[in-house]
Amino acid sequence: MAIPENASSHVCQDSLLISLPSGAYRFFLQPLQDGQGCYMCRILDDLSDLQTMQEAAQLAQRLMERIMAPAT
C-alpha cells in the first residue's frame, strides 16, 4: 500500500510506478469513502495454503525481504 504524501491536495492518478530496491511495481488507485484514496499493489493472489497467522507472518517477512533486496 502507498499513500500520497499530500492526499488532500493531490490529484490522484489511476496508477503509479513505484521503484523499490528489487524493481519497479505498479500500484493502482483504490478510492476511499471520504473521497481520497490510497494505492495498492497485489503481489500475491492466493493465500489459501496458509493455515495459521504465524505462517502468514513468516510469508510476509520473506516477501518484504525479497522486495526490499536489490535486484541481482
From TrEMBL:
Output the InterPro entries linked to this UniProt entry: NiFe-hyd_HybE, NiFe-hyd_HybE_sf
What superkingdom heads the lineage?
A: Bacteria
List, alphabetically, the Gene3D superfamilies matched. Answer: [NiFe]-hydrogenase assembly chaperone, HybE
Family designation: Belongs to the HupJ family.
Protein name in UniProt: [NiFe]-hydrogenase assembly chaperone HybE
